[in-house]
Amino acid sequence: MRTRPARPVRSFPCRLALALAALAAAPAVAAPQQASVRPQPAPQATAASAADDSLESWRLSPGALGARCSDAIARAHQSVENLLAAPQSEGTAFRRLQAIEQTSGDLQRMITMPRTLQVISGDAAVRDTSVACDKRATALTTAVLADPRLYALAQQAQAELGAASSASPADRQLAKLYVEAGRKAGAGLDSAGRARAVRLLQRHADLERDFSLALAADSSTIRVPLGDTVGLDPQFLARLERAGDSLTVHVDESTITPFMRFQRDRDARRRFFLAYNRLGGQANVARLDSALAVRDTVAHLLGFQNWAAYQLSTRMAKDPGRVMDFLSGLQRPLHQKAVNEVAGLTRLARKDGVTGALQPWDYAFYAERLRQTRYALSQNVVQQYFPVDYVLPQVMRLYSQLLGVRFEPITAGSAWAPEVSRYTVIDSASGRPLARLYFDLYPRPHKFQHFADFTVVPGMRLADGSRQLPWTAIVGNWPVPAPGHPALLSHSDVVILFHEFGHAMAAALDRSPYPTTSNYRQDFVEAPSQMLENWMWQPSILKRISRNVTTREALPDSLIRRMIEVKHLTDGNFWGAQVFYATYDMALHMVDGPIDPTRTWDEMYPRYLPFHQPENTWPEASFGHLMGGYEAGYYGYLWSKRYAQDMFTRFERDGILDPKSGRAYRDDILAPSGTEEPDVLVQRFLGRPVRDSAFYRELGIAGK
Q1: pTM of this prediction?
Q2: Structural domain total, the chain
Q3: pLDDT tens, 240-254?
Q4: How far apart are CA 571 and CA 446, in angstroms?
Q5: Same domain for 188 and 225?
Q6: pLDDT at 38 over 90
Q7: In terms of domains, do 191 and 263 share one?
Q8: Buried-exposed string 275-293: b where 16+ CB fall within 10 A, e elsewhere
Q9: CB neighbours (10 Å) of residue 125?
Q10: 215, 234, 260 — which closes off a domain?
Q11: Are residues 154 and 228 in the same domain?
Q12: How confident is the model at residue 481 (pLDDT cuts 50, 70, 90)?
């Protein structure tokens, strides 16, 4: 069981879901392109657009960064105002909408990276400047999306395209998304209602930003006597600070797994668990409580029953009731599996003299003990086969073979931190550059604490017809190696890497002409990368990416067999936790009126997992999804998994590295991105509508 949900793979400020929500993202406004309604061929990327180092804002001083942001936002604002004020005779509605989209994309291009620095920069002044930029950009976005002139223009464009048989899917989707965004921003209200909606949504953005920054700045620690550190991984111990006869353990995402799995002292595990479930503090609980009130007000103001209905109006699921039916069908069988799992672990704990019920801080430790005793499988043994300096190149080679790309290292220049590495992604067949890829894989103070892929420069068609290549960054917190030793990864670390790499390739291979259509519906966005996790469980692939740090040998067959045997060992608690997080999220956002987040968590938790939440903890204060754009959306991980496992059946049938299927995945799923609805993409890839059987098989339960 994970004590808290895994961070979303694509979250703020990754690929922004709506490109006008782009107007909160990034500027430098070229003359708007008056494109035809007729679909245009995708422009060729140029070497210049791949290496436009003028965009690398981490080289700028805080003053220069702020000036760039202010200038870009001001120019974007003026450009949009000019376009909205122009007489209708100056072009069709769709051409004017395209011009606004161009302005939006230019804005994103210039300030998505500066805005991202608030969660990756080690310089406090830069982070402060980035926060200020983000606030100004968000204010502009909120106001523009609520503008009734833009809303009317989008509706007119949608009507025009409905009558134009030659309109492309991307064009139709662009107009559709602008209409959706306008309604959600309050553009359909009267002037007083719009003004109120704008104020509320700006307040909401401030609360979410402050929540995330407070969580990133949390430096909670516990102290552990040296005598209680026996059994901990030497690589982990080398990172800890010694003071007298004890060690200081930072409580965060990079430490929870190595500590909770291998810390033999039960009280030390308890203290870590409690500290972990207090991250963010009561101040974040208050921010969440305020945000819930704002959301409820906004939803009713805009004519929605609640915030869940508001959010789902632009997602695949559409109806909160449909989501709850989906989740409730998973709850009972997974809860029973979880209870059975804990019963087995309790028998192990009894041998250590543990009396009474097993506690949540015991779970990871005894699950690891079960792997070792029943399956002779130890994470410390497995990770000897996954040194970072071997795994990462092998993963890149696998993606090269599967998707027809190659990676060239960039040695000149620098990034936002010395340890960040950079590559150019190149199409193998044509030799054309496709994207820039960054790796920022180790923890730093004030850095984003989870693993995610961030798009720091969006891919888009420029005003001159060329294409700005996307720059995408895989940001994580792998264990720092002991001095003189290579960093070693657990198998779960490798799975996460392959997943995030999948998101990076989705950004690199997206061929959408518009930033607004360059992302999937949020409840599908995880599916392509979730599908790719399956590769990390194939014996032939595990052989390829592993090499023992001492013997240089690949994982032996016997060890691979045991790894696969334990894959589903804790499914009840893992997937049961996912159902709990999703249902809790929906409960907060389907209620009519105030709700106590802490009390709701405490009451719901034991209905989904075989534990009780300890008193005086507030895990919702560090549940970043609730305050990062995933609210009423956590169900998307499970929803996406249905599609992921069904898409994988094609590779099961045709071969795990079948080049034809790999190319179809690139052409049918990644290249179109958000230009068409996910069900259309998946049906094209599979040759049939989606089925649920592979999903239920993966969870080990019977489907409906």
Answers
A1: 0.89
A2: 3
A3: 899 889 999 999 888
A4: 33
A5: no
A6: no
A7: no
A8: bbbbbbbeebbebbbbbbb
A9: 13
A10: 215
A11: no
A12: confident
